[in-house]
């Protein structure tokens, strides 16, 4: 896993690299700028690269990029937006080094100067944003804001150094006018704000440039989250042994579906089986069972007697390894009674999704005996909640907008309050544990935003939770779901069916082992 840092942690990181690891800041800047220049040269070749530098260290990186491009046969052109007398020490050294190799700097000081920038951008291959990085602490205004608006309109590949100027480093919320990058080359470690759905819209593709800091530094200074990597999932999941039989691989009960919403139950079961469960049983309402019997081949069914909810669920859950509850299950009294009984009696892995989360958020004391809003820990056992922003907003009694503005904080808060692992869905799913661990899955494709996608995810996690700890099951589930979608979408950004996401999973598993 790759540590993801906040603004404050990034500052501590720099300080530690400089003071404890004795890597001078000017060396870090050189490594950052040279690494970025290599990447930009690969895109632009000999074509023009326009670099706009601020007066802080982000601008310093920009001067280093310019020098390396020029020395390797590129065609850099440098503008400075900011007062030369405000250049930081390292930025000044690198401005002078750029001038020393024959470079020039065009100062942008007033509106009409933008015309020169516009002319230079015409026909350029790349524009590099080196205006603000982790030092940004307020909305960009004045001439710098006009520069950003101009850069955002030109048809030139936009590359941001470290962070797109204008984006909040911690939340990914644009503070005002914000550079719209196609590619962000971030230095040393990914930053939190680059990985939220809002942040991603400004970040574009994300690449990390190593700047020569010893690898133990992030752990020394602490980090807020971790990026999930393929190797993590490969380490957790073991290949099946040759003597596996269907029950040793785990039998998952799926409490889902209701008349008119049978697809949800089928998709959960499909996801469960594709992710390696040995068997799946859909446990649902009698009329849903009747309708399912003509449709399912690989899945078993059991019905919940509305007059004997507890007894019929007990019978259906006997010898099951994990339970998934919620998709299409309903919000009526029998559904509530079923959920209350499962919460009170089932002590194995439990994945709560969709209607189960909505029922929980109504705060019915019969469900868990405790009120979430009072900050207690009502869910006992290895539980995983898989809300989207709207469901989490209901659970935390807030708005989706507030959740989206602080996804990391919201997921962490929900995990702390419920005592469950919380997977917050979205363009980048995040997984929070009650102990504060936070993991981000950046894999996936826009094609995953399709009806039933969440049902498949719940099913995949259900299968994994019968063989892994809940936190690992949720992380690995997010990975398999995303990669299954990528495999089946085959490059398309839409048109994917939820069942195809599940169908992509076995090939992803094969590649992992
Ligand atoms: N990660 C590393 O190890 C390295 C990072 N480097 C680069 O340094 C920047 C951070 O540089 P810093 O000088 O701290 O700040 P900025 O350049 O981002 O900003 C300059 C300055 O601007 C002021 N400011 C903040 N907000 C505004 C605003 N809205 N309008 C006007 N002025 C504003 C504030 O005072 C800032 O200090 C990091 O991102 C990397 O790119 C180094 O290369 C070393 C290695
Ligand atoms: K920048």
Automatic annotation (TrEMBL):
Record: residues binding AMP: 425-429, 454
EC number: 4.2.1.136, 5.1.99.6
Positions of K(+) binding: 58, 129, 165
Record note on cofactor: Binds 1 potassium ion per subunit.
Keywords attached to this entry: ATP-binding, Isomerase, Lyase, Metal-binding, Multifunctional enzyme, NAD, NADP, Nucleotide-binding, Potassium
SUPFAM superfamilies: Ribokinase-like, YjeF N-terminal domain-like
Cofactor(s) it depends on: K(+); Mg(2+)
Catalysed transformations (reactions): (6R)-NADHX = (6S)-NADHX; (6S)-NADHX + ADP = AMP + phosphate + NADH + H(+); (6R)-NADPHX = (6S)-NADPHX; (6S)-NADPHX + ADP = AMP + phosphate + NADPH + H(+)
Domain YjeF N-terminal intervals: 10-219
Sequence positions that bind (6S)-NADPHX: 57-61, 133-139, 162, 264, 328, 388, 455
Domain YjeF C-terminal span(s) in chain numbering: 229-512
Superkingdom to which the source organism belongs: Bacteria
Annotated Rhodanese domain residues: 14-116
Subunit structure: Homotetramer.
Protein family membership: In the N-terminal section; belongs to the NnrE/AIBP family. Belongs to the NnrE/AIBP family.
PANTHER family listed in its UniProt record: ATP-DEPENDENT (S)-NAD(P)H-HYDRATE DEHYDRATASE, ATP-DEPENDENT (S)-NAD(P)H-HYDRATE DEHYDRATASE FAMILY MEMBER
Function, as annotated: Catalyzes the dehydration of the S-form of NAD(P)HX at the expense of ADP, which is converted to AMP. Together with NAD(P)HX epimerase, which catalyzes the epimerization of the S- and R-forms, the enzyme allows the repair of both epimers of NAD(P)HX, a damaged form of NAD(P)H that is a result of enzymatic or heat-dependent hydration. Bifunctional enzyme that catalyzes the epimerization of the S- and R-forms of NAD(P)HX and the dehydration of the S-form of NAD(P)HX at the expense of ADP, which is converted to AMP. This allows the repair of both epimers of NAD(P)HX, a damaged form of NAD(P)H that is a result of enzymatic or heat-dependent hydration.
Protein name, per record: Bifunctional NAD(P)H-hydrate repair enzyme
Species of the source: Pendulispora brunnea
Taxonomic placement: Bacteria, Pseudomonadati, Myxococcota, Myxococcia, Myxococcales
This protein's encoding gene: nnrE
């Amino acid at each position: 896993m790759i540590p993801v840092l906040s603004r404050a942690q990034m500052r501590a990181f720099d300080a530690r690299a400089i003071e404890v690891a004795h890597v001078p800041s000017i060396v870090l800047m050189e490594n950052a700028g040279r690494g970025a220049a290599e990447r930009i040269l690969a895109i632009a070749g000999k074509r023009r690269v326009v670099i706009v530098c601020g007066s802080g260290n982000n601008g310093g990186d920009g001067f280093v990029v310019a020098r390396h491009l020029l020395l390797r046969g590129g065609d850099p052109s440098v503008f400075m937006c900011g007062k030369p007398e405000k250049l930081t020490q390292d930025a000044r050294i690198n401005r002078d080094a750029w001038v020393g190799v024959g470079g020039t700097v065009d100062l942008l000081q007033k509106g009409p100067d933008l015309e020169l920038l516009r002319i230079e951008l015409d026909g350029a291959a790349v524009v590099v944003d080196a205006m603000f990085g982790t030092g940004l602490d307020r909305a960009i205004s004045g001439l710098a804001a006009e520069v950003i608006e101009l850069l955002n309109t030109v048809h030139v590949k936009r590359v941001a150094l470290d962070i797109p100027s204008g984006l909040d480093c911690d939340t990914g919320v644009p503070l005002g006018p914000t550079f719209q990058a196609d590619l962000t080359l971030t230095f040393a470690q990914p930053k939190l704000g680059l990985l939220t759905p809002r942040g991603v819209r400004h970040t574009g593709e994300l690449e990390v440039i190593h700047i020569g800091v010893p690898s133990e530094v992030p752990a020394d200074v602490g980090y807020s989250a971790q990026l999930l990597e393929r190797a993590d999932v490969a380490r957790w999941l073991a290949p099946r042994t040759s003597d596996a039989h269907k029950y040793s691989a785990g039998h998952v009960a799926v409490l889902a579906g209701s008349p008119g919403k049978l697809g949800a139950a089928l998709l959960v079961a499909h996801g469960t089986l594709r992710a390696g469960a040995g068997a799946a049983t859909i446990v649902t309402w009698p009329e849903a069972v009747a309708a399912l019997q003509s449709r399912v081949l690989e899945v078993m069914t059991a019905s919940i007697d509305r007059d004997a909810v507890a007894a019929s669920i007990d019978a259906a859950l006997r010898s099951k390894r994990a339970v998934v509850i919620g998709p299409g299950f309903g919000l009526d009294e029998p559904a509530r009674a079923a959920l209350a009984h499962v919460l009170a009696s089932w002590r194995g892995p439990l994945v709560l999704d969709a209607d189960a989360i909505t029922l929980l958020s109504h705060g019915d004391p019969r469900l868990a005996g405790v009120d979430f809003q009072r900050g207690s820990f009502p869910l006992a056992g290895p539980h995983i909640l898989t809300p989207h922003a709207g469901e989490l907003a209901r659970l935390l009694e807030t708005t989706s907008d507030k959740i989206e503005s602080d996804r990391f904080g919201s997921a962490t808060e929900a995990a702390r309050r419920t005592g469950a692992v919380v997977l917050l869905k979205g363009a980048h799913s995040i997984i929070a544990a009650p102990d504060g661990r936070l993991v981000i899955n950046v894999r996936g494709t826009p094609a995953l935003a399709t009806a039933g996608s969440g049902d498949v995810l719940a099913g995949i996690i259900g299968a994994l939770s019968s063989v892994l700890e809940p936190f690992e099951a949720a992380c690995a589930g997010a990975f398999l779901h995303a990669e299954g979608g990528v495999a089946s979408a085959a490059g398309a950004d839409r048109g994917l069916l939820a069942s195809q996401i599940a169908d992509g999973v076995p090939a992803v598993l094969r590649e992992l082992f």
